[in-house]
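Project outcomes to date are best conveyed with an example. Our students and postdoctoral researchers have been running inverse folding experiments weekly, and each run begins with a structure described purely in tokens. The record below, which covers 591 residues, was selected by the lab manager from last quarter's runs and is presented without edits.
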């Protein structure tokens, strides 16, 4: 693990952000428990996501089950295609992600886009060895390994199910009903924040590659012919883009261009993806991602998921590596088409025309008095096949005879017997299958990124200090409340104030143990942006007030984490001031 990773993991465990689960039993790779600080930080990130992508955009949010039946994943393509490449060590038996062995030991990036055969060749050509024991991996087979966790639904093994590998499928399978909730009006978006599970071959880097993680996904259903995103809202946002072209060029680099320029220059091909990149840049800044350690990278052709037509990843830099934190994919109609083909539902939306239109519609009206004697028990199936054919391929009826296939047998029918004709019909609309644009965020990777990017060290009063410069909205605790000392009534007043601030909806911690400097450091380390101290001046204000002195105002100090500056604030204004500071409606400088 890198120095940055080790530092963060140590802080995370010591201060209650996250720790490997089931440690008492030796721990299981790829499973993490969020501690008290981490669980609140994660909640705050999810709420900030909900605010940006659901509430402010007017989308719906659902919560679907984690376990889904096999049929869902047969349809979605995950059963067949959701694989990573595995190579096993012949000596120690450890399993490794073959593309990662290549990336970590050669100059090749994005080895995921190569075939298993090519990866096996690269391993051999470069004499690559097992990362655990150093044994040569040449000649070892490189194979596809399906990442889904399988389970049985109910007793017995007749009803296989899987833990969902992405929350998205829980949205797609409910599309027919969700579309009703949206009154069948495109475009509409459905979001979900929930668990996803992947049996990763080699989990690593703390929360970065785990086997159980939280995704925040938005599936935005659009009419590809008509719906346009509100691009004007984001067109002036500057994006750090690392396109396929730049990745493949010898001197390729990140291009800083506005959304408008990226679309005009064809760097971004799709306006919807461009819209979401523009919208998201500001959100990453809001939650504390360092923009000097951030980029959007386009997927290389071989890297695209089986459902994606185009995909850009938001990536953050962590200990010198670029890590995907969000995928922005144009999924087209892949998922809805697949679920329509595998289920009883159509997964379409009825699109009403502005005015009814008259169209020529080829139809058949098979003469069963002829088909019956000729084809016996198969006559009904032949008639159905004719009806399907006329919809799919009306030109097939232009000759005097037409041929259809039923269960592998061919049947030839006179066009006249088929009752072929072209009718004029008036239609008020048509059934269309929406396309999907999907921003898909990994919440654990966001947690890890904001912690890593917020980590700072400096010196205060000749003492080394570590602090997390988390935005107040995201920090697990907003206010630490301390008495200067727990005596002379200071502790009692501080506890009262902590209670009042909690009542105002703030995340508050009370601490009276140890020297005041130590207490500040403890809060700095978990990123608490403000600390309130009750001291003797507070009491003086009280006493003067009690003495009915018109100038007497009870005050406390409020200390800001990053600068360590302290200001006196009237207790009467304290809750309102801190809420405004947390919500970004007031800056500490303006106090
Ligand atoms: N529905 C699309 C989808 O699942 P993905 O790129 O496979 O796309 C989306 O995953 C996000 O989920 C990623 O950008 C990443 O943040 C997170 N993610 C994926 N696999 C993960 C893992 N093993 N551990 C932690 N986060 C993961």
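After processing, the design step wrote out the following sequence:
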């Amino acid at each position: 693990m890198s120095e940055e990773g080790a530092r963060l993991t140590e802080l995370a465990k010591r201060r209650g952000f996250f720790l490997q689960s089931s440690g008492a039993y030796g721990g299981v790779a790829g499973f993490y428990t969020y501690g008290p600080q981490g669980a609140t930080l994660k909640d705050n990130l999810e709420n900030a996501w909900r605010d940006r992508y659901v509430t402010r955009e007017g989308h719906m949010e659902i919560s679907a089950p984690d376990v889904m039946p096999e049929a869902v994943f047969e349809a979605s393509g995950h059963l067949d295609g959701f694989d990573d490449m595995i190579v096993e060590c012949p000596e120690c038996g450890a399993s490794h992600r073959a593309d990662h062995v290549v990336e970590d030991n050669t100059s090749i990036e994005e080895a995921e886009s190569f075939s298993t055969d090519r990866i096996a060749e690269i391993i051999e050509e470069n004499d690559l060895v097992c990362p655990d024991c150093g044994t040569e991996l040449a000649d070892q087979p490189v194979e596809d390994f399906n990442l889904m966790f399988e389970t049985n639904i109910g007793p017995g093994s007749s009803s296989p199910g899987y833990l969902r590998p992405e929350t998205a499928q829980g949205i797609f399978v409910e599309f027919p009903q969700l579309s009703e909730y949206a009154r069948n009006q495109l475009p509409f978006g459905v979001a979900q924040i929930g668990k996803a599970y992947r049996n990763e071959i080699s989990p690593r880097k703390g929360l970065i590659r785990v086997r159980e993680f939280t995704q925040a996904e938005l599936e935005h259903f659009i009419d590809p012919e008509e719906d346009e995103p509100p691009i004007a809202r984001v067109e002036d946002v500057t994006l750090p883009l690392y396109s396929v072209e730049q990745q493949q060029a010898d001197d390729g680099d990140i291009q800083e261009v506005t959304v408008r320029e990226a679309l005009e220059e064809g760097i971004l091909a799709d306006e919807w993806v461009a819209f979401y990149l523009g919208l998201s840049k500001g959100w990453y800044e809001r939650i504390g991602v360092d923009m000097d350690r951030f980029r959007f990278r386009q997927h290389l052709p071989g890297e695209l998921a089986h459902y994606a037509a185009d995909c850009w990843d938001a990536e953050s830099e962590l200990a010198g590596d670029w890590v995907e934190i969000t995928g922005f994919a144009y999924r087209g109609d892949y998922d809805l088409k697949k679920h329509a083909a595998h289920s009883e539902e159509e997964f379409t939306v009825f699109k009403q025309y502005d005015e009814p239109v008259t169209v020529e519609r080829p139809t058949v009206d098979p003469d069963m008095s002829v088909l019956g004697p000729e084809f016996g028990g198969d006559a009904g199936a032949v008639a159905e096949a004719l009806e399907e054919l006329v919809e799919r391929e009306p030109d097939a009826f232009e000759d005097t005879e037409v041929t259809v296939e039923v269960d592998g047998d061919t049947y030839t029918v006179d066009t006249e017997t088929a009752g072929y004709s072209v009718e004029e019909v008036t239609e008020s609309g048509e059934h269309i299958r929406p396309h999907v644009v999907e921003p898909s965020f990994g919440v654990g990777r966001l947690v890890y990124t904001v912690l890593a990017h917020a980590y700072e060290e400096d010196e205060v009063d000749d003492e080394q200090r570590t602090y997390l410069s988390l935005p107040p909205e995201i920090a697990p605790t907003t206010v630490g409340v301390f008495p200067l000392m727990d005596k002379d009534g200071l502790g009692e007043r501080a506890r009262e104030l902590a209670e009042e601030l909690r009542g105002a909806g703030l995340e508050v911690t009370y601490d009276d143990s140890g020297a005041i400097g130590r207490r500040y450091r403890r809060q700095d380390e978990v990123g608490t942006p403000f600390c309130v101290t009750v001291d003797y001046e507070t009491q003086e204000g009280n006493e003067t007030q009690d003495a009915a002195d018109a100038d007497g105002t009870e005050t406390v100090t409020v200390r800001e984490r990053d600068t360590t500056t302290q200001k006196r604030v009237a207790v009467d204004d304290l809750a309102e001031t801190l809420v405004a500071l947390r919500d970004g409606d007031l800056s500490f400088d303006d106090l």
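The CA atoms of residues 187 and 321 lie 37 Å apart. The longest strand covers residues 349-363. The training component of this project remains on track.
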